[in-house]
Amino acid sequence: MLAPFGVAAAAGVSFWAMLSGMGTGHFDPHDIHTPSAGRRVPAFDLPPQAPGQGFSQATLAAQNRPILVNFFASWCIPCVMEAQTLAALGSALPIWGIAYKDTPENAQGFVTRTGNPYRRLASDRSGVTAIDWGVSGVPESFLIAPGGLIEWHVAGPLTDDNIRTGLRPAIENLKR
Length: 176
Fold this sequence. Notes:
single chain; 176 residues; alpha/beta; 2 domains; 5-stranded mixed beta sheet; two-stranded antiparallel sheet; 6 helices; 7 strands; 20% strand
C-alpha cells in the first residue's frame, strides 16, 4: 500500500532536483544532448529551394571556411523569431538553409517575408536528410568546419546567448 507514496516521493525528489538544476544553470530543459559535434556531415544531395541554390554533402565539405547550416520551416514559430538573428549573423558567417518538410511555395514565402540570410537554400521535403543529421525539430543550426566536420550544434533558435557562449567560441576554435 505504500508503493504509490514511494513513487510519488521519488518523482517529487526528481522534480525538485530538476528545478534546482535550472536555478543554478546545470540543467537546461531545451538542451537535447545530441552528440553531433565531432561527426562528419552525413551524405545528402538536396534540390534547390527558390530563391536559392541546392547543395550536397560534397559541396559543403569542399568549402574552405566555416558554414552555418540552418534547418527551418515556414510553419515554425521559433524560426520566425530567429530570422532577425540570422540576418545579423549572415554578414559575418555564410549561412546555408535547408527548408524542412515544407512546400516550395510556403518556404519561398517565408524567406521573402522574413528576409533571406541564406547564401544557398535547399529543400528537404521528405525530412530524411534532417533525420540523418539528427535534427529533432526546427530550427536547428550546425557549424560545419572546412572538410565537412560538425563543429557545433544547437537545437532551437539562435539567440544572442547561444551565439556568445557556443557559436563564437566554436568559430574561434576553428581559427587555431
